[in-house]
Protein 1
Amino acid sequence: MGSEKLEKSLGMKTIHQLGFVKLLDVMGDDEEVENSARISYGEGTRKVNQTRNLIRYLMRHKHTSPFEMCEVKFHLKLPIFIMRQLVRHRTANLNEYSGRYSVMSNEFYLPEGDYLAKQSTTNSQGRGEVLEQQGLLQFEFNRIYDGASMAYQVLLEHDLSREVARALLPVANYTECIWKIDLHNFFHFVKLRSDSHAQREIRDYADAMYELVKPNFPLCCEAFEDYIQGATTFSKQEMEVIKDNMSGSWTMSDYNLSERESKEFIEKLKKGDAE
């Protein structure tokens, strides 16, 4: 397709044999996030070694605009059915390979191993046990792919327009795109698409993208993992259960919380007590 024209890359990971993730460009770093936040305070407020603390404070209290000042840009090769999930993130900028201007590839996603699993009996969107007859299943995939690819070429040879001929290609057909997003919304993308409830194929892409971005924003990613990705929320009723059962001997230091984080945690637990 068009991948050979894009030589510049800050890192690349192969996904599912034929797909890939390339980090093309990064605008900003941890210091840029800090500088964007400190414009609110003016000169004379910065102290040595406060970059990490400030970034963690911003992430913890959902002050998102400093993270929006930084951007990451990717070149992705992925199946169309994964592309459809990617475009759901409407805060990103996107430009996709055109099947109207160009001939589509004859490359298709072929699941294998534990990706070939039964429909889950407890989750209408998930998978269950791994299926045993994998050779037969892959044969059926390839039979459809070969037939669709041949039919597509026949239609083109009969001078049918590319924009119409592509209609018969399966959603497993590979496409490519350039995808750019700010850091705050990238974290939101990773939070959703790396989650265990997301389809496994897009989790593979999200995980690879995050691994490429992380070295460029180590402090931001650390804060994201601690306060967003590895965190959860509780309902009002669940908070009552927690407060009613907080007894025994324990200290905040047992859980690696700073003094400020400890105070904020206690404030969360006390929220609603005056009602």
Protein 2
Amino acid sequence: MNESSTDNRRTALITGASAGIGREIALIFAENGFDLVLVARRAERLQALAQEVQGKFGVRAEICAMDLSDPAAPARLEQEMMQRGLHIDALINNAGYTVTGHFRHTDWTAQADLIQVMVTSYAELCHRFGPKMAERGYGRIINVASLAGHLPGAAGGTLYAASKSFIIKMCESLSLEYANDNVHVTALCPGFTYSEFHDVAGNRDTVSKMPSLLWMNADIVAREAYDAVMRGDPVFINGRANRLVALFARLMPQVPLRKLMARNERNAVARDT
């Protein structure tokens, strides 16, 4: 259903909009009549996407090149929207990446940047834009989490799953807080998704060995995300196989599950030596 009209145009702000799931979410919101604010570091990609959605869907698309690892970025983004006279009706927090390797062998600055992008900026942008949505009686917020947030912690990429668990619990709470304000908050939990995410992370060879039934296309993930937030789902896991994996992790006793994770780690170390 088209949630916007020429008489009452709504605006969606999407972080991490230059590629992958973020780009596809931008397209699906534009298809449904939302004007867009596209946020990412790569201005040239944002500009190309803005021109694409304007040509295909006739919506307005503005870009805002910004690095969300900068602690000042969320406040600056809010100020930028005020200066442009834009009310944000939908917020999609999608910016994200992972720091590979064991925690103790990584640089703390890299870990601190990850926390800023994938925890603090998500929470702060919800805090800055959510109350204004409630005041206007309409809001849609998607925080992109992951299937990893439903699974036991694994060695390596230590803060990635932890950050996604945080996002899931935050969305569950915010969904309750805004229940009477027509503001829907959804934690989107995709599994393996065809995008450049794993190329940037440097683990493409490893994840490519996962069964094909666990993989999804980014455009399908995005369409399901749109439908889920419009329904008001507090948490949505993409894909039947991923939902079964999450159910298994929830029902299986934790001690043997942790032992299974530890065995997988030992096997991975053995393969690499």
Protein 3
Amino acid sequence: MRRIYKSRSQLAAMRAPGLLTGRALEAVRAAIRPGVTTLELDAIAEDVVRSGGGIPNFQLEPGYHHTICANVNEVVVHGIPDARPIEAGDLVTIDCGAMVDGWNGDAAFSVVVPGGSGELVGVRERLSQATHAGLWAGIAALASARMLGEVGAAVEDAVEAAGDYAISDDWIGHGIGRSMHEEPPVFNYRTRVLGPAVKPGLCVAIEPIVVAGDQATRILDDGWSVATVDGSQACQWEHSVAVHADGIWVLTALDGGAAGLAPFGIEPRPIRDR
């Protein structure tokens, strides 16, 4: 497992793709409204990434030609951007990544499109809140964890405390660095395997994926999009996080994770160049 740990200079090199990923997601978030299409959101993200000197790393996946995955309502992961207008009250998850100088960033957020009403909108909002809580509980746990498995336990506890939800066991987090998906796996629930030690050099993408019903899924006709079989709503939040000698730093958060970690009494520490 020694190869999963990166040097300080390597972690410092991951700041640029992390920030670029974060900026692309913020630009997309600002553009989400009723009537916009996910293809239009994809173009916004690609422009930010390329204008910032990066490469959309999702496009490096064989057969995938977009900068984002856009998962709407019952779509769990890998939603292909299309020309269908987003509607008020939709639950939209945007997953995005950028590569800069051979290093990768990967993050996702979810939002309920303003203007909706009714019981289903409330279901979607509470699901997003529960998933968001799981993400930050996991990141906070990483700050003091001895073993990586403690992150999954924290995610599970936070999601379960928020309501009767199912955490996907098909889709989990991962290491990140020269490749977007590296060892080690980052589970979003308790496992018997505690995983590697949490120590300086560890860099992982924590990404709870939670559904409001049964987690059974099917692949849609486009060959990529994965949706719940029973039509249950699905949600994902994700950040790439580095552990270094001075603490942790959320690479894909524009504030390094300060706002998300404040409720836990944790202050993220920037990665020094030397």
